[in-house]
Amino acid sequence: MGAALRVSDAFAQRLDRERTRSGRRPGDLIGLEHEYQVIQDGAQLDFQELIHGFRLGARFLDPSDPNAYHLPSGAMLTCDYREAEIATPPVRRGPGFTREIEGRALSERGALELLLAPDTELIGYSTHVSVSMADALTEPAALLYTRTFAPALMLLLNGTTSPGLLVRPRPGRLELCGEFIDGERLRAVLTFALGSALACAAAVDGLVNTEVPPEVRLKVDPAYERYGWYVDRRAAGADLHVLGRRTQLPLAGGGVIDAQLHLERAWRAARRALGRAIDLDDADPVDRMVSGVVPLPSEGPAGAEAERPQPSLAAGSFGDLLRPRRRPRFELAPVMVTWTASVFLLVDLGRTRRAFACVPREYLEAFLHLLDTGSLDALLWPFLTSEPDERALHEWSQTLEPGLYDELGPRRGLLMPEREAGANSPPATVLPRTPRRLAWWPLHSARR
Question: Where do the domains of the chain lie?
Answer without folding.
Answer: 29-309+420-445, 317-414
